[in-house]
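S1.2 Input.
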Amino acid sequence: MSFDPQALLIGLFEAAVAAADPKTVLPEFLAAISKELSVHNPNGKVIVIGAGKAAASMAAALEENWPDDKLSGLVVTAYGHLVPCAQIEVIEAAHPVPDHNSEVAAQRILTLVDGLHENDLVICLLSGGGSSLLALPATGITLADKQQINKALLKSGAAIREINCVRKHLSAIKGGSLAEACFPAKLITYAISDVPGDDSAVIASGPTVADPTTRQQALAILNKYQIATSDAVKQWLDMPESETPKTVCESAEFHIVAAAKQSLLAAAKQAEKQGLAAWALGDDLAGESQLLAQSHAQLVTNVLAQETPVNPPCVLLSGGETTVTVRGNGRGGRNTEYLLSLAAALKGQARVFALAADTDGIDGSGDNAGAVLWPDSWQRAVRLGLNPEAMLENNDSYSFFEALGDLIITGPTRTNVNDFRAILILE
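S1.3 Output.
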């Protein structure tokens, strides 16, 4: 059995991304609601709003599959993720740290849903990145406050649940506040999940669902990671008004249309077509990138020793979202950090290749989706005069794989079910 390892791994990644394409996953959900509206609510408005790296592609898919032209609205997506729409306006804003456009988009969306009636419908399209792209500071807080806290949390190693807990309590639109603004209109949210566990309250910081977290928890997270805050932020979080809605209208619906589980299944099927055994390690893996890589390196050792459910040739698949506690000043994202850590742990193990990439096409804030690891990557880097250990310590994994020519650059995929990892073990 002969393989081109890089082509095979990239093919698995492409299968995972394709399984989360809005054009593929949205139509079946839209068919049911459009039929219901034509019978029970023919005269109401249909307002489309949304935020996320997939928001524009979701809006385009909605337009393509909606039975009439009774659509209007606004979605916000990341720069470079624009998809032209005929009826729904698209604004681009910054990710992962919000900018002025993020604030403008959030305010305009609140204005769009103000004053709606019971016979109106709001369709909200959410995906990963929505927290940054839909940023409206709470009373007394400035956008600069939110930017500073966001940057610090992203470098701290905090989990996405923790980051979004803080974001929700500093926002006038997240954590259920958008759902309150839409009432009494019918509200349906379609979401592409990028969070481990597919928790609706965490995806894009849950603007259309009740928030189970509290302002006390937000304060505890800021203290845990020693995040400096302005006096305005401290004063706001000390006030009961900073608490998020704990209930929203019972008629509000929330549907996850794509998630990491389906993408891993698609990759597994693709691997099996190639004659490989596929072992799914989980779609919700989290924790530090370096620690997960060390754990996976041990699994590789166990596979080679035939102590696991699969034997070579095989592929180990996983999804989720790891974190990186930034201690250096290098360039890198969580996927390349994972791969460089895996290289350090495998020590040039023959017959083992790996890919790690973000399904949105952007690993952290770089221009790459991720990278490919070869058995000799570490040795090739040394021959080029690089110091891999120092680069790992300096969080400089991007530079490591750039020097080897092994970065994966796809451009924005316009979907987002978070990280995809595949370890190929040959006979």
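S1.4 Remarks. The mean pLDDT is 95.
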